[in-house]
Please model this.
Amino acid sequence: MAPSSTQLQRMREITFDYAGARDIADVIGNMSGIAIDGGLAWTVSDEGRTFECLRIDDAGFRLEEQYKLDDFFPDLPAGHEADLESLDVFGGRLWLCGSHCRVRREPKVAGTLDPGFNRRPSRHLLGSIELGAGKPKRGTARALPFVGDGSLRRRLRNNAYLSGFLNLPSKENGLDIEGIALLPKRLLLGLRGPVIDSHGLVVSLPRKAALLPEDGKPHLHVLDLGGLGVRDLARDGDAVLVIAGPVTGADGPFRIHGWQPSGAGRIETPPVIYEWSATARHPEGICPFAFDGRPGILVVYDTSGEGLQAGTTVTADWLA
Model:
């Protein structure tokens, strides 16, 4: 069960060293998801088309290998970043999810808004890769179709609550997936947007059928997060950790909730177990992590604000 608010407190920083990574500025400046499995940490950035594996050492975590998404998902649409927002390790597989979002075009004239928005199917990855001896195995990747029949966006189009938001830009309450967590029977996808009637949403799919295009009708969890959307999810025993934050790029509020998923179909109100004040640090990734034998939570950020970056390193917070 997730800790209570009186137990959770910021204790120290943990360093991630990405020396040797390609496009390192994008990697360390835009961390968007983390999962820890044994002595390995897996991270993603919402820029580029890679994912990274780091190994724990006395100083924190150090890059062991950087992998190209295209080596595992050769059909991933080319030309743009994959906008990976979340990942998890479960059942000997590494699970990866893109935002599936639309983005408003950059204006051609400064100080104006462009009326159009971009559709980028490179953001439409929901898939997994088998792991062996701590390494992703080529030829073992599975994913939903990126567009058309069987794709996740097509599957969500039939949901009465989500259908009207699928083509809106992400920062304008459009569809924006930012969290993934695997449970024994369900795959959970946390939505930064839309927020509906001031409630955050989590999409639930049957785990064994999640990557079968013809199976698995989505179920929607509706969460009272105080008007915020979901910025990440992580399994923590029989509970789920939820980072809640604004749909927009505002500097807060950001909170961690401890959630016990229910199948009752009613609005659920997970308790707050940690809260940041308004901050230039935008928490984007979360996972359980025991340090020096003490249980805790590791949080990574997607911004270089407040001295998080130095050379090839970036720091995360450990909450005891």
